[in-house]
Amino acid sequence: MVDLPGDPSLGARQLARGITATWWYTFSAVVFLELFLVLVWTLEAFASPGDATAPVVVGAGGIIWWLSTAVLLWAYRHRVDADPGVPWTRIALPLLIAAAYGAVAGLATDSWLLALMPIAQSAVLLNWPKGVRLRIVVLTTALLFCLAFIDGARGAMEPGAPGWLPALYAILIPAMSVSSLWWWDVLVTVDRARASESRLAATQERLRVATDVHDLQGHHLQVIALQLELAERLMGLDPDAALEQLQAARVSVDEARQGTRDLATRFRSVPLGDEVANARDLLTAAGLAVEAEIAADADDAPASALGPVIRETTTNVLRHGAGRHARLTLRRVPEGWRYEVTNDVDAEAAGEPVGSGLDGVRRRITEAGGTLEIRDEGGDFAVVVTVPANDGVSDDRGGSR
Amino acid sequence: MIRVLLADDEGMIRSALAALLRLEGDIEVVAECEDGERALAEALRLTPDVCLLDLEMPGLDGVEVAERLNRAIATRCVVVTRHARPGVLRRALASGVSGFLPKSRGADQVADVIRRVAAGARYVDPEIAADALSDERSPLTDRELDVLRAGRRGQTTGQIAKALSLAPGTVRNHISAVLAKLSVGTRQQAVLLAEERGWI
What we know:
The complex is a heterodimer.
Chain A: H1 10-47, H2 54-77, H3 88-109, H4 112-124, H5 132-154, H6 164-237, H7 239-264, H8 272-285, E1 289-294, H9 303-319, E2 325-333, E3 336-344, H10 359-367, E4 371-377, E5 380-387
Parallel strand pairs in A: 1-2
Antiparallel strand pairs in A: 2-3, 3-5, 4-5
Helix pairs in contact in A: 1-2, 1-6, 2-3, 3-4, 4-5, 4-6, 5-6, 6-7, 8-9, 9-10
Chain B: E1 2-7, H1 11-23, E2 27-33, H2 36-46, E3 50-54, H3 62-72, E4 76-81, H4 88-94, E5 99-102, H5 107-118, E6 123-124, H6 126-133, H7 142-150, H8 157-164, H9 168-182, H10 187-196
Parallel strand pairs in B: 1-2, 1-3, 3-4, 4-5, 5-6
């Protein structure tokens, strides 16, 4: 099967990290809003005449309530993985705390607004089904607004005094928190869309390859069937012609196989430096002592010219592998790039000249404006290839296979 | 005469190849085996000159059979495969396999490789070599690969640490580095990925 890129890329991982960072941003925005609200109301309780314990009740209770909302927010973070709805067991305690804080703080400051605000804020942080949260926000905001008026009418707050600022803050906090959470929801949706988009692209690519394989195989199988049928008919009449058809059928099979292989390896290519490193590993595994010197910027070397050289020479060294050591060098020279492979050749094992099979490679190198030199240095055999650097020219690796 | 043992779990291919090789005047097929264990036993009994082993066989695979044979007797092994997975050529060469070629090669070419290998040469098919050269390089360090290898059968962090003489915390650090590099969620996924790519 063709190995298609279905794994999350580095970019995907960074985006996933970005999503986590956005969550913490949203989380801290909401908790700071709440903390500041508690602070403002504590100062308000200080400023207003009355019970000296009121600021303590509002402040200390506020911290407890604040912590309980953090629990709710944490549950909200994992909302996307959970079923919609409200798991009562987990949220009962935070909601009780909110209600209790509202009751105590409302009594202490004699404010209906402060009595309702904590439970209203906690309620909008819950994992409501779609559409419900908006209605709850509108409802609680309206209710808080009315209570602020009632407080004003009862004289709990002097209108015009700085007291209306905490009131306004308390009225608006559910809406402000929800807009932060809404923004977070949008980002999660966008992230999911991106993930499914990349899955879709991979699936489409797979389908395309499957269609290509099907077309290719279908065509070749049809040709082979015809050639075999012809051979069958000819067998009695003209055995020589029948044999010819059988041989033609074998060639067709080879073509089909090669075509499938080309399809499967179309996307397989590695940077040139990696290719040399793979060659080093293979030769080491074959028992040779290998020295490799790979320039750090080896991936910029012209792969379409040097790739076949690396493949051909590595195969040759492996094939005539009675040698004990090899040296691979890929480096920049004034003329461009030079790849040099040296190995010792055991004269007994050499059934054919080691440079054989390099003719096709030499032609390609000459076309690329380079030189290929084969040296025999007293038992050490060296192939030295120099090609001009193709700076700024896009390199067609796919065509090199 | 070159005495050859054939091992392939696909009966049609095995018998057709055996028939074709018997047509070559200088090759004698002394055994046909349908799995790795039998190939190992027969080869130890018969000491053939060349063993032609399919890579994908149930039980022991071709490279494993070759590795054990090379330790035990003087025979030369040729591995054939339909699809060379990444890293397999490196493993085969390290195990002392003398020849490696794709299954798609004709019987005449196979016979030719058998002759070369019997004469003491090594043969690696250019197609297989090209595939091996374009294997994706592992982004992991040797130590990280050691950790994955030590934990590939689901061993605990403690067991890995003991096996590699490392502190459990160090092992955990290596594992989290591996997970980040491969962008997978669990150690098991990392092991599967590394095995698939031939890194371990």
